[in-house]
Amino acid sequence: MIISVVQLGRVDYPSATRLQQTLVELRKQRRITDTLLLLEHQPVITLGRNATRKNVIASEEQMQRAGVEIFECDRGGDVTYHGPGQLVGYPIFDLRDRPKRMGAVDYVRYIEEVLIRTCADHGVPVQRIRGRTGVWTSAEAKIAAIGVHISRGVTSHGFALNVTTDLDHFKLIVPCGIADKPVTSLHRAMAEHGRSAPAIDQVAEVVVRNFGKVFESQILWVDTLDALVGRAVGVPLQEPKELKAMHGNDTSLA
Q: CA 188 to CA 195: how far, in whole Å?
């Protein structure tokens, strides 16, 4: 099995959602391989299928002052926050093509394992908590959230690993609807031991390596979306302006 990996840089949430929808259809048609998108988002709160608005505790005025938008989406889970300094991964995988065919629960456990290994590689011991999705430190602070959508065996949405995320933005919500557990980041967890968190691109490389190990797949780094889907759609993909940052043409974008 091959996983194609594309690093997109910083992308706004609606553009990333549209891109996932395109890639999901191409994967269903077997015109692309399993694909992992890695990116950061502008400050945004997303409401999953099981979310309730009461878990957004900030007023509209507070949200505007913080520069945080809000969107509903079709992933599983409750409310969460995405923003700069957080590594977001969107695997577009066809679970039916896996040598060991897996269901939704198995798939989530595999992603958890990727993140557990990644944190351990940075000297941060983490764990699962029975009955809850995601990855937690030994102090039961959530360091990574997971929320997925599966359509005819093909996955979208995925995980968010806090690296140097502004944790104050989580105060705008009840993260994942869990009021009794704090949120943390690699930066905070490593600082407790007198160490500095690596750059998000370095963390991304470790995540990708662990995806290869856990999903028993070869990794193919793809430089551009054109390289990934150009042949599949028959013509070069014209990227939305929001995605130009992946080529370094506009690193200030979003």
A: 9
